[in-house]
Amino acid sequence: MKIVIAPDSFKESMTALEAATAIEEGFKKILPNEEYVKIPMADGGEGTVQSISDATGGTIKELFVTGPLGEKVSSFYGLSGDKKLAVIEMAASSGLDKVETSQRNPLNTTTYGFGELIQDALEEGVEDILLGIGGSATNDGGAGMIMALGGQLLTKDGEPIEPTGRGLADLDTIDVSGMHPRLKEVSIKVACDVDNPLTGLNGASHIYGPQKGATPEIIEQLDINLTHFARLVQDQLGKDIDSLPGAGAAGGLGGGLLGFLDAELQRGGDLMVDILNLDAAIRDADLVITGEGGINHQTQFGKTPIAVSRVGKEHGVPTIALAGCLNEGYESIYDEGIISTFSIIPEFTSLEEALKNGYRNLKAVSMNVAAIVKAAQNL
């Protein structure tokens, strides 16, 4: 029997590779002679760099870049084993967790460091770039990123604007002639699981601004600034980014990526399925095991367990999901090819203890699931 093990990370407890290893160890206690294939997964958010590095034998490059508030911060991105793919999480440079709660104000934050990571990857000679854009502290429409990559965003006096959500109000002229030449040579894909437009009540500022520290007054100003930005992009570059699905992701960074880098936005889980060639691994499998830290009603919207189970369903291979916890609405996953799901927490405990013991608990539950599989084989 061939068993494919393809979990996401169990955040704050295990990486995706550690989770896959725990599952494999548990299964081998009961079914030691089966064929096991481990494929660490992610959905484009936190952990994507680590998962692809682990899955491809790649490396993680560490460097200092500009942080959300203009200070230097320690950051990183991943290179696949063949050095052809760079994987960059915007949160590693411009994430909300890099801004103290008391300083959170998306008028003041920038994606400049994210652009510096992309620039470094281009200098490495990669052919493809995968961008994960979740967890941003920004609302600058990607202005900082554009400027870091050589684009000029200028005031009416010909001076560079401040590369922030506030600075967009001063934008008068866009010049992309100096952008990094290798941008035309690489394929850029973006893991994006939201379809918000750039502006309006469902846009970047109104929907995501509050969690970044924006007051109602700040939200209105940010939305006005993004509207101004989109109008200039339309007038000067001939690109309508305002109403495109996903343009509002990461404080309008989605719009900047679409308008200036000709990027392609895709569901994160589906992107990872393609990049890691999961279809080939599952096609002749007998069972798939997936999972992540929490499974709930939102899991059905393209999260890792569903992206994995859809591949299994296509090939008639049953999928079992394991989770740190099962929350309200988790039953919806049964419509997507998952035949059963299990929580790994064996007793009432603190969150700290549950995270600490995640590997042990996942291994134990995997052993119990393997026992059920073995019993089913003998029926």
TrEMBL record:
Keyword DNA damage attributed: no
Keyword Transferase annotated: yes
Species whose genome carries this gene: Alkalibacterium iburiense
Pfam family, one: Gly_kinase
Keywords noted in UniProt: Kinase, Transferase
Single annotated GO MF: kinase activity
Entries under Gene3D superfamilies matching the protein: Glycerate kinase, domain 1, Glycerate kinase, domain 2
Family indicated by similarity: Belongs to the glycerate kinase type-1 family.
Protein name, entry field: Glycerate kinase
